[in-house]
Amino acid sequence: MSRHAAVDLGASSGRVMLGSVGPDLLDLEEVARFRNGAVEVAAGADGREPRLHWDVLGLWQDALAGLARAGRAAGTDGVRSVGVDTWAVDYALLDAGGGLLANPRSYRDARTDGVAEQVHRRLPAEELYARNGLQHLPFTTIYQLVVEAAGPLLERADQLLLLPDLLGFWLSGRRVAESTNASTTGLADVRTGRWAPDLVRLAGVPPALLPDVVDAGTALGPLLPAVAEPARLGATDLVAVGSHDTASAVVAVPAEHERFAYVACGTWALVGVELEEPVLSPDSLAAGFTNERGVDGRVRYLHNVMGLWVLQGCLEEWRLEGSTGGEVDLGGLLAAAGELPAGGPVVDVDDAAFLPPGPMVGRVRRACEAAGQPVPVERAAVVRCVLDSLAQAFARAVEDAVRLSGRDVDVVHVVGGGARNALLCRLTADACGRPVLAGPVEATALGNVLVQARATGAVAGALEDLRALVRRTHRLERYEPRPR
């Protein structure tokens, strides 16, 4: 048995998980969990909208405290390695001494509004898609950097690091860009996974700012003594895992064969199939599909869906409305929503109106009204509308993935936090007309740990072997589609 610590940072929370891995063992212990969220900073004298930043120093403190707890929990076994995964596209700028120039901006910041259209006037969307293979989302790193290049920080910067690589730098002193996350920036060649000089120039970034790209599974060496000694981690290495959290989650999809689709469902939902080669057709671009790199050079061919973000916003709004500010009874709301008849209102959860943070209930109702749908009044009806809308969006994405890639799909795997939501899984099976296998919930941390374990020799084999270990050690829930 070997022990491995996964630092897993999501857009709404972070945690440190201690994994135990052996030939027939794959177990996780949560040793730390902490809140995360974009911090709104009031606009300056320029009168622009409030800025959204990540409190990356707070996350670093929380991650260090979690790693210290992992060291204590591991005891005499010790922690063999550490891996870091986060959400995609956001980055930090460092000065010549390695210091942070500013807290990173959040992808939900409004600064990129309209920027994609400016870029596409210089390089048409079709040509850009042929180069980077990415769905055109307004917050992709290449669009963020076009805005950054017009500001003061980029001139002072000596290095640009994506967020998981920033934490990796602080842990080990190594500056790299892990390939699964680099592939989400729009700056990487879709076929090689390495930086594309013409796209870097398009963003207005000096190429020297970008570190070398390494593949998931690369051992980056020991933790710095200043990190390892206070945490009592001893001889612990940093491993570059699938640092885009979805890449790690897909590693842990417990598929038995290649004919599967996945829904990695958390704040965002990433819906797609796993391929060997990218799909770069005009129809693929028109359908909003992206080609991101996965572990072992696989292609994560997927479509972004807004995910549980809308439901989370509704729950937070209702929590704040309460007289005591207490938690909302989600279980009760889901039970009541499940009793409502099928055929209720459905909205486009990918509409840009749902992207910014803030109250969501009014947005759901306005979207229903604009679409000529019945407007939900009761809370359970709002929840059912959101979940029906998500299930329909998942089904559309699965059907598009099958049509565009030619990859047949027999089963849909739901992993991540959405796997806990039995109503969402049942509605997804109904909408897809295919069985849904739900679990594991902690797919991202499991994939993180599995790549570490393979890199350090605790397990061996291809992705299929790692997935077989997940199947042997984790219970899955099966939802059959009901007759229509």
Describe the structure in brief.
The chain has helices at residues 56-74, 115-122, 125-132, 141-149, 153-156, 163-172, 179-182, 197-202, 225-231, 245-251, 282-286, 309-321, 330-339, 361-370, 379-405, 422-432, 443-455, 463-473; strands spanning 2-9, 13-22, 25-35, 39-41, 51-53, 81-85, 91-94, 159-162, 177-178, 213-214, 218-222, 237-240, 260-265, 269-275, 290-293, 299-305, 411-415, 436-438, 477-479. With 484 residues, it is α/β, with parallel strands linked by helices.
Q: Could you walk me through the main structural features you see in this protein, from its secondary elements to its overall organization?
A:
This protein is α/β, with parallel strands linked by helices. Helix content is 38%, strand content 20%. The chain is built from 18 helices and 19 strands. The chain has helices spanning 56-74, 115-122, 125-132, 141-149, 153-156, 163-172, 179-182, 197-202, 225-231, 245-251, 282-286, 309-321, 330-339, 361-370, 379-405, 422-432, 443-455, 463-473, and strands spanning 2-9, 13-22, 25-35, 39-41, 51-53, 81-85, 91-94, 159-162, 177-178, 213-214, 218-222, 237-240, 260-265, 269-275, 290-293, 299-305, 411-415, 436-438, 477-479. Strands 15-16-14-13-17-18-19 form a seven-stranded mixed beta sheet, with helices on both faces. Strands 3-2-1-6-12-11 form a six-stranded mixed beta sheet, with helices on both faces. Helix 10 packs across helix 17 (443-455), helix 13 (330-339) crosses helix 15 (379-405) and helix 15 crosses helix 16 (422-432). It is globular and about 60 Å long.
